[in-house]
Amino acid sequence: MIARDARSEHGIALIAVMSATSLLLALGLSLALTTTIEVEIAANQRDAVQTLHAADAGLERAMADLALADWDAVLGGVVTSSFHGGDGAVTLPDGSRLDIQQETNRLRCGAAACADADMDRVTAARPWGRNNPRWTVFASGPLAELLPDAAIAARSYCVIWVADDPAENDAQPLRDGGPPALVDAANRDNPGRGAVWLHARAYGPSGARRAIEAVVERDPRWPSAQLRVRVWREIT
User: Fold this and answer.
1) Of 4, 51, 88, 137, which one's alpha carbon is 20 to 30 angstroms from that of 214?
2) pLDDT digits (tens, 9 = 90+) for 78-134
3) Distance CA 57, CA 53 (A)
C-alpha cells in the first residue's frame, strides 16, 4: 500500500513538472514571437518613414529644376529634370519590378493603358474633363543619386510626375495658362495660370510605398528660381 502511494506521488510530481515545463516553454515561445513581431513592426515603421522622406526629397529636387524650366515644354514631356532615369521598367529596392509607363497611365486614367478619350473622361477622381491632368514623368531615379558621396544609405526609388493645374479652364492640359476655352462673365481669366501639379512617389524596402502631391506656383514677389507651394498633402 505504501509502495503504491509512493508511485502515485512520483507520478503526480512528474505530471506537475511536465505541466510547468510546458507552460514555461509556451511562455518562452510567446515572448520570442512577440519580440520578433515587434521588431518587424519597428522595421516596417522605419522603412515607411524613410520612404515618405524620400518622396519629399524627390519633390524638392523636382521643384528646384522646375523653377527654371519652360512649363509648356515640361507639360509636353519635352523637358525633364536633370534627375531623370527614364520612364521604362526598373527594379525596386525590394526586388520587385516597376513599369513606370503603366503607373503613368494609372495616374492619367486609372488603367494600365489609356487613350486621349479616356484621359478626358469625367470621373469621380478626374472631374475636369478636357482639363484633366495628363501626367508626365519629370524626374525619376534612386534617392542615393541625390545624396553627396552616399552619405546616407538611401534605399528608395523616386518618381515625380507633373501635370497642369486642374483649376485651369483652357482645355489645354499640355499648356500652362492659355485663354479660357469658353469666355463669358464667369470665365474672363484662367485661375490656374502659373501653377502646376506634382505627384511624387517613393518606393522603399519591404514594399514600402509613400506618395505626396503638391500644387506649386510662380510667385512674382520672389526670384524666378523659387516656387511657392500652394497645396501639399500626403496621399494614403
Assistant:
1) 88
2) 999 999 988 889 999 888 999 999 999 999 999 988 999 999 999 998 999 999 999
3) 6
